[in-house]
Design goal:
single chain, 650 residues, alpha+beta, Beta-Lactamase, Rossmann fold, 5-stranded antiparallel sheet
Length: 650
């Protein structure tokens, strides 16, 4: 079957066929014809000495120049007699006494157009020779205009799709729910050249469609019945719908107009479906600025709705995940807390709660086993960084040669065993909290590198050159007297002050009185839950035994003891015989410590130690300490004076 081009060219004069081949080659090569088309026609008609050449196109009731090709700057459309244009449209071709010849450009998809050429009057007499050339040039013009129109449409489609993808990418990055919906409405009004747009989300439980944004409504959202108006119909049917003033008024819900003091004259609404195809709402655009909404507008809004639904669903999932993370963080924070009601712990907890809301560096002091890491985790989980990583580093366990790699990471090939690049603790903890445990055991060289990273907030991997910005909150802990280490030149003074913005000191367990029993109960419940057993209870004698122990291993020792009892005790009531206290490796037995003392001196030292221990365990409550020692309060004071011990009021 011959193509349209073959049909045209078969009856065109040879010069027109040659021109068409040349121009089509230019089009295929991507060369614009805007400025070369009219000069090319002038060349074909050279024997007739043409002057002005242009294609005129109907625009409403008037005529104007075809914008696809550039006419001469001095061309005046009012110089062309109206009879020339009108007659050309009726008769396809005309040669007029005014010197103008014209041929109609026929196209079903375009407004009426005419190719007009001004010739010397003498040339008009050669109408018979001009007729086939002008008709051929007009048909060639129609073909080229159609090609230009298709190219423009493809370009517009590419631009529309590009814009759509850019909009969708922007939506996926937005986190604020209100801003997301406003951005969707703004994009729809711009793409469809409309006055307003709203996203109606379906509240199934209340049978309502909740529209946002809604200008002029308190709270910025509009609630309508989910079966009312065009949006209700689209929600129910899942089929897009267009409406304008020429359609039935009964289809439109005018209540929102009255509420918003707005007049809807046209609208297009499409369904919003989630990724499973279930209806989640309606996307509505109101009042086309020029005319009515078209099928193309509906198609554009449908495509926009697909991206909008995905962004809304993702935003809802992120919000749900954030809520779950908050709940999880709160649950974890409840399990990671400093347990106790002794005055020192209550004060410590209040201070740590205030510090947690800040980004201040914290130095945690305390003996081994007092719960320094638990306190650090509690501070992290109570602060704004609770959803970010908490990375603990035991500085005492890292040899100096690997310290820099451990903290700052290394690149592949940085040293013998660096077979691949690895991020350091600073990078892993970025955005969260870095807990430096046993900071007092870090070498001076390591301290210098750590200080630089803390001050500059920039690290460089071992074997690398690229600076890496980090944002971490630093919590440090030690069981050593850092101030004394600074005086001994074993700890850098500048690092000490950098870490020591806020100091929290955990008291040893032996000074926490009834906190021992609270912690014991906590561990009993924890281990019973893990085993699926009933929680055993402490007999009064076992409770007294726990209170009287000095706990050299602090909470860690207590936890280990309770774990052992939980697994080995067969009774529901724990007796003193079930408790087997461990002796500290550094602790001498009473017999060893007093072996070389006289009986009187050994007795005196034992009484002093025993009374001091009771006072510490009782939290300096002298009445309670006396009861623990089996003495009356006044007798305890008298005994302390005999032993030259300092007495004090409660």
């Amino acid at each position: 079957m011959p193509s349209k081009t073959d049909y045209f060219s078969s009856h065109w004069p040879s010069v027109v066929r040659e021109l068409s081949c040349e121009l089509l080659r230019q089009v295929a090569a991507g060369e614009p014809l805007g400025t070369t088309f009219y000069p090319a026609i002038s060349g074909v008609l050279a024997d007739f000495r043409p002057g002005a050449i242009a294609i005129v196109r109907q625009r409403g009731m008037d005529w104007g120049l075809e914008p696809a090709f550039a006419a001469a700057s001095d061309f005046r459309i009012d110089a062309v007699p109206e009879v020339v244009i009108s007659t050309a449209l009726e008769a396809q071709f005309i040669g007029h006494d005014s010197g103008w010849v014209a041929a109609a450009i026929v196209s079903k998809d375009r407004a009426p157009s005419v190719l007009v050429v001004q010739l010397p009057r003498s040339a008009v007499d050669q109408v018979d020779a001009l007729r086939p050339m002008m008709i051929g040039l007009a048909e060639l013009s129609a073909m080229l205009l159609q090609i230009a129109s298709d190219q423009a449409a493809r370009g517009a489609e590419i631009q529309r799709l590009t814009t759509m993808l850019e909009i969708a990418a922007t939506w996926q990055q937005q986190r604020d729910w209100t801003e997301l919906l406003e951005s969707m409405a703004e994009a729809a009004t711009q793409l469809l050249d409309a006055q307003r747009a709203s996203i109606f989300l379906w509240d199934r439980r209340r049978s309502l469609l909740v529209g946002r944004p809604a200008m002029g409504v308190e709270g910025g959202q509009l609630e309508v019945d989910d079966s009312a108006g065009i949006v209700g119909a689209v929600l129910g049917s899942g089929v897009a719908k267009r409406w304008d003033a020429s359609d039935s008024e009964s289809e439109v819900n005018r209540k929102p107009d009255a509420q918003l003091q707005f007049q809807t004259t046209s609208l297009v609404a499409v369904p919003l479906n989630n990724r499973n195809g279930k209806r989640m709402g309606v996307f509505e655009v109101i009042n086309k600025r020029d005319g009515r909404f078209t099928e193309h507008d509906e198609r554009v809004l449908n495509e926009l709705a697909v991206h909008a639904a995905a962004a809304i669903e993702n935003s809802q999932e992120r919000e749900h995940l954030a809520q779950n993370c908050d709940k999880l963080a709160l649950a974890v924070a409840e399990n990671v807390q400093v347990i106790g009601e002794s005055p020192s712990i209550v004060t410590l907890r209040k201070t740590s709660d205030r510090v947690a809301k800040t980004d201040l560096s914290v130095l945690i002091l305390g003996e081994n086993g007092t719960g320094k890491e638990v306190l650090a985790r509690s501070i992290h989980l109570s602060g704004a960084r609770r959803h970010e990583p908490f990375i603990a580093v035991n500085c005492a366990a890292i040899v100096e040669t690997l310290l820099e790699s451990e903290l700052f990471g290394h690149e592949k090939g940085a040293f013998t065993d660096a077979h691949e690049a690895r991020a350091g603790k600073f990078e892993i903890a970025n955005g969260g909290t870095l807990f430096l445990d046993e900071i007092g055991d870090m070498s001076l060289g390591g301290q210098a590198k750590l200080l630089r990273a803390l001050e500059e907030k920039v690290i460089v991997r071992v074997g690398g050159f690229t600076p890496i910005t980090t944002d971490v909150r630093v919590l440090a802990a030690t069981n050593q007297p850092l101030a004394e280490l600074v005086r001994q030149k074993r700890f850098r003074e500048d690092l000490f002050f950098r870490l020591n913005v806020v100091t929290l000191k955990l008291p040893p367990l032996r000074e926490r009185g009834d906190d021992i029993l609270l912690l014991a109960q906590h561990f009993l419940e924890d281990f019973a839950h893990k085993q699926g057993h009933r929680v055993p209870t402490l007999s009064p004698a076992a409770a007294r035994a726990l209170r009287s122990h000095l706990w050299p291993g602090n909470i860690r020792e207590l936890r280990n003891l309770i774990e052992r009892v939980s697994y080995l005790c067969t009774s529901d009531v724990i007796q003193p015989s079930d408790l087997s206290f461990s002796q500290s490796p550094n602790e001498q037995s009473d017999a060893q410590r007093l072996a070389n003392k006289s009986l009187n001196e050994a007795t005196r030292q034992f009484q002093i130690q025993h009374i001091q221990s009771a006072i510490q365990r009782a939290g300096r409550n002298m009445t309670e300490a006396a009861a623990m020692l089996g003495l009356h309060r006044s007798n305890l004071y008298r005994k302390m004076k005999q032993l030259d011990l300092e007495t004090f009021d409660e």
